[in-house]
Amino acid sequence: MKFKLLATSLAVTLALTGCVSNNTNNSTPVASVASASDKVFSQDYLIEELDNGLRVMVVKTDYPDVVSLQIPVSVGSRDEVEAGKTGFAHFFEHMMFKGSEKYPQDVYSDILKNSGVDNRAYTTNDFTNYYLSFSKEHLNKVLEIEADIFQNLSYTEEQFRTEALTVKGEYLKNNANPVRKLLSAVRNEAFDKHTYKHTTMGFFEDIEAMPDQMAYGQTFFERFYKPEYVSMVIVGDVDPQETMKAVKQHWGNWKKGDFKAEVPVEPKQTEAKYVHEQFEGMPGHWLLVSYKGTSWVPEKKDRAALDLISELYFGKNSALYQELVVDKQIASQMFPYNAETKDPGLLHVFVKVEKEQDLTVVRDAINRTYASARTELVDADKLAALKSNRKYSFINGLDSSQAIASTLARYMHFERDPEVINQLYQSADSVTPEDIRTIANKYFVDSGRTTVTMSDLAKVSGFEREVSLNTLVTDSKQPVERHFKLLDKTNTSPLVDVNLLFYTGAAADPVGKKGVAALTAAMLAKGGSQTKTYKEIKTALYPIAGSFNYQIDKEMISLRGRVHKDNAQQWYDLVSGQLLDPGFREDDFKRLKKELIDGIKAGLKSSNDEELGKEVLYHKLYQGHPYESYNFGDLSDLDALTLDDVKAFYRSEFTQAKLNVGITGALSDKVKAQLLDDLATLPKGDEARLMVPDAPVLTGRHATIIEKNAKSTAVSFGFPIDTIRSSKDWTALWLVRSYFGEHRSSNSFLYKRIRQTRGMNYGDYAYIEYFPRGMFQTKPDANLGRSEQIFQIWLRPLRSNNDAHFATRVAQFELDKLIEQGMTEKDFNATRNFLSNYVPQLVASQDRQLGYALDSEYYNTESFVEHVRKQLANLTVEDVNRVISDTLQTDNMHYVFITGDGKDMAQRLASEQVSSLKYNTDKPASLINEDKQIEKYKLAIPSGNITVEDVKTVFE
User: Fold this and answer.
1) Which residues, in sequence order, are bridge partners of residue 48?
2) What's the CATH code of the domain at 535?
3) Backbone angles phi, psi at 823, to 5 degrees
4) Where is the signal peptide (predicted)?
5) Are strands 346-353 and 331-338 parallel, antiparallel or unpaired?
């Protein structure tokens, strides 16, 4: 008598069985282990083999009262080796419910019913399992009854023949299931000699002949229903030693047999096979792509790796599933299925489509995916995440005595030793990305493939014209063709900066979906990937101080990352999934949409009057233009946006044609090559940049007054200009801007006249390029390239409407003087000297150097510092004054005021009310005299061009 005490780990795989008597048996997800020493099942069990060969395993659990008895018999359709005799393993699953002479069916059923016993069974390729659940007080009686039936099964010819008709009906029922029909077709086509050629139900002609096969039925039972084929698993609220004694009492005298089926060996498949199955009246079309797999050798990596490949490339989190089912919605269903079989079986991918022509589309996509598995290394983090998920999903499934018992039963039939489970998942844990690729090349070859299509059609048009997998693999090994631009400035700096600049942005927002560009960018930089949540990514980035952020403007979306060179691979493995394999989770979508809406409501409109005024100015100047909406959207549009809107924008706008990649720092060649190859998987696209029309023509002077709860009044005004950074006069105009109102500089003219001399506010500046977030920074950001710009003056908040009116008049007064008189030689030289020395400060950091270099690519200019310094060196004061005369004007202007009293501000502007300024100290007479002139200086805004708007309506 053999005896051993083991601690084991357990796992369950999906099993599509030929039959489940009384009820189906729900499966538990597969798991993998975190390391070779881990065990996913921690309870001890008692296992003993009786002298007659019966293997018994007992597991005591803490679930009170309930016991699960599972009796896997190592006989399935695999063992049906005689021609014309298929389906008997399944047939005897039915017959075992007929009872014995001591316990006829009626008596046996009545006892179990009154004892509350749940009694069921199912058949698979390699084993038949009988499972009963009951209260522990009935354990001894259940063991007695089952022992008698297994040793002394008894039935009449009438019962035999009647049950044969039942089995025929079950076959016909199952044959209406498209998945079962596909499995039957592919097995019949894929196998020539092996008994896996038929399913557990058997061939239909054999089922029809069953009523006359009673004598063979008895032979089949006597061959296989012997103790050496049977295992017994008892799990629950039991005493293991007492339970083992009870088993020996009732089962110990069962006589051992000596039969062994000679299962034929399947010859190696030498070519790809294809068959079409017509299913009259079936809606839609099915595709099944199957490859020959491996036999049950759990200590080797093959079996575990094949399961991982199926889930990685064809599971619900796979890129292909997202493409075919979620994004493009070509397929309504897609799933892999890999039955664990003793001998080499089949690895399946099922897909259902609605249109006939999509059968070839999905078949080719599956082929390309297998080619990818053969040629590219799977992301190590994705692989690790899948192993972890399967491990913990499995553990979570072991939540009852029955779940534990059914899991054990599924593995006991292999070698009747549950340690095979430990071997299998230790093998899974050791699988590397290189193993995945190697094993994919071993099994996923053209000669191992069998394809089945099924539909109402007699034939699928054009399906025979299939590109071979080997050709795809060969092609994929060619150099990757890239359709994006690369600015490679790698150097020896330990800091690595990567800037992925897409020529798209808010100007690409469709009508009614303003904000979708911003929300999409946010989902990529602040959302999770398919394999990791955003929280997991942030947690992983924290110890390496890695970053990945986004910036959005009208024509540019910049995704920027920074990391130390030592952690570049880890950083890339995390953030690449965000861009290339975004999770697009509903919770991320809701969170980020709420952030954008709150940012507009609570940030911009409620508490940032300065930025609000500047953004309203752009909004008013670009009415009906792609630049009209705020970069982060309109509130009503944002509120109505769906996750599908984001996915659609991602597909259409995040293409290689629009992508400009900037890299700097000591990024390794390996990570750089991986980055560039991965980016080449983005859609090619055909539009390199947005086509932006000219700005609307502004005629006359206009004022928009935004009324809100404000203690001061912010002012911005300006007009569109044709001059952008690539224009010949840009540097001259940039110099004028610096002289008149250099951002956050006390040396600029307006600053001196309004703040320094009069003490009216915090600062006064001028711009010829978009400069957001000006109150928080002293230098402009890169990657705000635009095809259209405005000349703008920004007056930081004034103490009152009166002061705002006066300060606007000062700015207008000084601008008119500048246009009329131009710059002096002295001012020109001083400003040129300042800029020549100042311009390197704009690109003083590594990431700014990269950003400005990408902007130079956008504008097709030399590097920023060289470009500006060269132009400055060649400028004269005459050039500058010509540009002032040609570009600046005050006849066509739009003013924006953010104030707490809109009616008062409107009345002041319309009536040209005098805006006298009072000081708290004596001022020079020259200044007082100038103030007298300015306080009446006409802004000349027609009353019909003055509007007052409640802040609640802005960007709604």
Assistant:
1) 3, 56
2) 3.30.830.10
3) -90, 150
4) 1-20
5) antiparallel
